[in-house]
Structure formats: C-alpha cells, structure tokens
Amino acid sequence: MIEQTQATTLVGSTDGKGAALVLKDVHKRFVQRGRDSHVLRGVNLTVGAGKIVALVGESGSGKSTLARTIMRLYRPDKGKMLFDGVEVGRIRGRSLKDYRSQVQMLFQDPFASLNPTHTIRTIMAHSLPANRARMSRREKDELFASSLARVGLNPPSNFLAQFPHELSGGQRQRVALARSLAAQPKLVLADEPVSMLDVSLRLSVLNLMQRLNEELNIGYLYITHDLASARYVATRIAVMYAGEIVEEGTADEVIEDAKHPYTQLLIQAAPDPNRQTRAMVDTTIFRGEPPNLTQKIVGCPFQFRCPHVNNRCRTEAPNMVEVGEGHKAKCHLFDV
Ligand SMILES: Nc1ncnc2c1ncn2[C@@H]1O[C@H](COP(=O)(O)OP(=O)(O)OP(=O)(O)O)[C@@H](O)[C@H]1O
Fold this sequence. Notes:
Blueprint: H1 2-8, E1 21-32, E2 35-47, E3 52-56, H2 63-70, E4 78-83, E5 86-87, H3 93-102, E6 103-106, H4 110-113, H5 120-126, H6 130-133, H7 137-150, H8 156-160, H9 169-182, E7 187-191, H10 199-216, E8 219-224, H11 227-233, E9 236-241, E10 244-250, H12 251-256, H13 261-269, H14 311-315, E11 320-324, E12 327-330
Parallel strand pairs: 3-8, 3-9, 6-7, 7-8
Antiparallel strand pairs: 1-2, 1-4, 4-5, 9-10, 10-12, 11-12
Helix pairs in contact: 5-9, 7-9, 9-10
Bound molecules: adenosine-5'-triphosphate.
Residues 30, 32, 37, 39, 57, 59-65 line the site of adenosine-5'-triphosphate.
Protein name: ABC transporter ATP-binding protein
Family: Belongs to the ABC transporter superfamily.
Pfam families: ABC_tran, oligo_HPY
C-alpha cells in the first residue's frame, strides 16, 4: 500500500513551508454524445511551493478543466500530478480529503460556492479537515474569527452569524478565502476569483491573495483571462492554448517580451487602460478559430490563426524550447 503510506505524509503537514505542484504531460478527454473531446493535451506546469503562477488563456482553452483535474474532480487519462512529492492520482480515502484541504479551489462566483441556507460559521465548519473537525465549538469559533480577521472582515463575530446574502460580493469572496484558510491550505486554485467583482473591489481581493501568500506562504494557481491582473499578482505566467501550455516565464518577461504568436496576440487584444475606446478585449485581432478538440490536431494547434504559419507548422507539432532564462515557448519560430 505504497500510495497510502505516501499519502499519509499529507496529513497534518501544515507547516507553513508550502508545497509544490508538478504536472507532467496531463491529458483529459471527455466523451459527449459519442464524440471524444481531447481537452487537456499534455499539460506540463509547475507551481513552486508558495509561488503565485497565473494561468491565462481564452475561454475554452481548458483552464477550469485543469483546475478540476488537479482537485481530482476529474481523473486524468494520462500523465502525472505530484503535490508535495506525492502522486495525486494515488491518494485515496481520508488522505484525499486531506489533499482537498491542502489544495483548495476559489471560484469565480463566491455566492454560488457558499451555501445560502447556512451561516458563515456553518459554512466554515463544513470545510474543516478531519483533524480540525473535532475541535470544541469555542476553539472553532476562535479559528474562524482569526481567519475572518486575517481577510479583513472585522469584527469577525459579526460575520459568523450572517448568511451569504447579507454580504457584498467582495465580502463573500473574502469569506471564501477565510473558509479555505481555516483548513490551512498550501495551494489555492483561484478560478477567475475577481472577474465578477466590481472593478473597485478587484484590486483589494488580489492584494489580499498576495498578502496571504507572503504571510502564510500559500501558493496560488491564478486562472484568468486578464493579463494585466496576471502580471500584477503572479511571479510567473503560463499561457494556455487548446489544452496545452504554449508559453511560460516570469510575469514581466512574458508580458514585455512575449515570444509565442498567440501570447503576442493576447497582449494586443487586451484592453488598454489608456484608451477609452477599447474597454473590452478586442477579439477582432484573432482571425480564424481555435482547433476542434474532437478532431486529431496534426501540427501546431495555433496554425489556423497564426500570422507566421508555414508548412512545418501544418505537419509537425512544436516542442517547448528555451527562449530566455526560465522562459519557454512552444513554437517552430524558436525551434530551429
Ligand atoms: N464535463 C465536461 N464534459 C464535456 N466537455 C467539457 C466538460 N468540461 C469542459 N468541457 C469542454 O472542455 C473545453 C474547455 O473548457 P474549460 O471550461 O476547461 O475552459 P476554460 O479555459 O476554463 O474556459 P472559461 O475561461 O470560459 O472558463 C470546452 O470546450 C468545454 O466545452
């Protein structure tokens, strides 16, 4: 029972040291109405212990599927996922619960993720890991209060008895963060956590995530469409296209010196805060469509939209190659 032995090292190992997530060649297929859709097509990605990595890409590129696969809500069809050195696919039973305490998800819509019929106290109590669920009510209230105070909800006692509908969107997202804190996570998979909040609140929630990262060494996989917020909050950015990471590097380098034609177009399409007329993502910059994931892709998945496409792109899939220090891109332009 090697997997049980390995997995038990997860239990209670909440030591503030953080833990790395390493994904190797992760594939996920869905079969829908008899059609096989290859949504994750060999994802390689590392979120270092206590690091913030942003995962950016268009709608449908597979970002949420990847997060759900990491959470073990989906089983990958192929590939390896290692968390804190433990193979995630082998974690079973109680250890899976512990894994899901240490790796938590923060969703786009905090209202949908908080049970509306429960008070904040009950919501927080339900997400406690087994080793904390046995605490006395007083101990739990102290833990919940300190978690709420840490996310800036003061005085915490006022919030414990409230229901989600009594809170603002920003407060609800803070409650969602406090709930995860009570379970001492090492990694939070934050799936568009600020996109439903008012612009004025977005920055405060991103700042809070960053502060929790610094104070508690919590790592984040920050999933977003928004390159500006990715650069603001993350040290590294990974760009996803059609179920693959096509570029990865430090946040500054990926934005300032993007190599992959897709990343370059994403940056061009991003809303420019200095230009009044382009408040939305400019999708007209992209010609063509992303590939049909129900069909086998021969060559580069970006060939149908790429301004630099050549014959090699139509026949040979590009490899990920070094394009700078700690900066990689999957494009034939650099694989000569
Ligand atoms: N359970 C499922 N069954 C079948 N297909 C699915 C399932 N979940 C996701 N997909 C398909 O996988 C593809 C990727 O979806 P996913 O939600 O992961 O993308 P995304 O990058 O997170 O998009 P968004 O930014 O809009 O959330 C889509 O084509 C979607 O229809």
